[in-house]
Write a structure and sequence with these properties.
Blueprint: H1 9-15, H2 48-58, E1 65-72, H3 75-85, E2 93-95, E3 100-101, H4 104-119, E4 131-137, H5 144-159, E5 165-170, E6 177-183, H6 196-212, H7 234-241, H8 247-262, H9 269-293, H10 298-312, H11 320-353
Helix pairs in contact: 3-4, 5-6, 8-11, 9-10
């Protein structure tokens, strides 16, 4: 006999907050996606779109990359960039009209047109860009044709109605990717100025186009996968590659060295915020795993198991400061071990030198 105050299964589901919290980018979404919209008839339940996204996440579908690599400031800069992405005219470029630019002459016409149009923009600042340069990329092993077709569809949907653009696919490394160069000035007279919310929306759109072509792809923020450390900026990576220590590295290393030498750990409010947010995400995953486990369907039980394993495999919270501190502590420990071994060896040699001869 059920106790009167015992909650029924549908009441338990109704108490669950939306699962979409774990894959949202806070305060950065310009619109609601289909998987953000709960089922009003069954709050707390997974809609088909939510379930499909959850399955892709816990099964670790490849993550798309959509990245702004820079902006061209004048026609000479634009010419240099187009020469780079077309390998000096050896690779074909495609425009928003579907036209193929197969030589340097076609690129020259495009450069001249974009420069002339920029001259007609009376509001253009002297340092305003002629174009915004974007890379759309997928991990190694992804079908190159699907990547190119998805990039074309993405560009048409995102920019085709208002901005001229040209794109080129590169296959000279293990990651199939497309270089997309978009004219900054739109036909409506406004300039393209993407924000973080736009980049996330672009990632989701590119991933959606890939899925339409049979490629499992996702576009989740780092926190969805339990990661908190931001990737280093391109300029920082370039300096490290040249064996130059960036200012950000120097300041962080000095702060961490001070902590290690003083035997103390500085407390930062964002560390607690990161930990708190991660705990909420883990709990949200596990709540839905428990809800799936209450189902009678074997497929739900299997998904619940995968969700729990996904949470278990989440990496430890590590920021750049944490990594530096571990690196410095390990280096100090290695030096101490080396010093101890050197002292021990010196002591043994002295002992052997004092042994009486027989």
């Amino acid at each position: 006999m059920r106790r009167r105050n015992s909650p029924r299964p549908n009441e338990l589901a109704a108490e669950l907050p939306p699962i979409s919290y774990v894959w949202e980018t806070p305060n950065r979404r310009p619109r609601r996606a289909e998987w953000d919209i709960p089922d009003p008839a069954a709050p707390g339940r997974l809609t088909p779109a939510m379930r499909a996204k959850l399955e892709r996440i816990v099964r670790r579908a490849p993550e798309v990359m959509v990245k702004i690599t820079g902006r061209t400031k004048d026609v000479a800069h634009l010419k240099s960039h187009l020469a780079y992405i077309t390998r000096n005219g050896e690779l074909d470029a495609e425009t928003e009209q579907g036209a193929t630019l197969a030589s340097r002459s076609g690129l020259k016409d495009l450069q001249q047109r974009w420069e002339d149009d920029a001259g007609l923009d009376a509001k253009r600042r002297r340092d305003a860009s002629l174009s915004i340069n974007i890379i759309l990329s997928m991990p190694a092993g992804t079908a190159a044709v699907a990547v190119k077709d998805s990039a074309r569809a993405f560009a048409i949907e995102t920019f085709g109605y208002n901005h001229d653009y040209v794109f080129v696919q590169h296959l000279d490394n293990k990651h199939p990717h497309v270089h997309l160069t978009v004219r900054s000035l739109g036909h409506d007279g406004k300039r393209l100025n993407p924000r973080k919310a736009d980049l996330q929306a672009w990632r989701e759109r590119f991933a959606g186009e890939l899925r339409l072509r049979g490629i499992a792809a996702e576009a989740t923020p780092r926190r969805t996968r339990g990661r908190v450390r931001k990737p280093d900026r391109g300029a920082v990576l370039a300096l490290r590659k040249r064996k130059i220590s960036p200012e950000v590295d120097r300041l962080a290393r000095e702060e961490v060295l001070s902590e290690v030498r003083g035997g103390r750990a500085a407390k930062h409010p964002w560390d607690e915020q990161i930990k708190s947010r991660r705990d909420v995400i883990r709990r949200r995953y596990l709540d839905y795993a428990a809800e799936l486990q209450r189902s009678e369907a074997p497929a739900d039980h299997e998904l619940a198991r995968q969700v729990r394993q996904f949470v278990k495999d989440m990496p430890a919270v590590e920021t750049r400061r944490h990594a530096l501190k571990n690196e410095i502590s390990e280096f100090a420990s290695t030096r101490r071990r080396g010093a101890d071994q050197s002292v021990g060896k010196e002591g043994r040699e002295k002992t052997r030198g004092q042994e009486p001869t027989r």
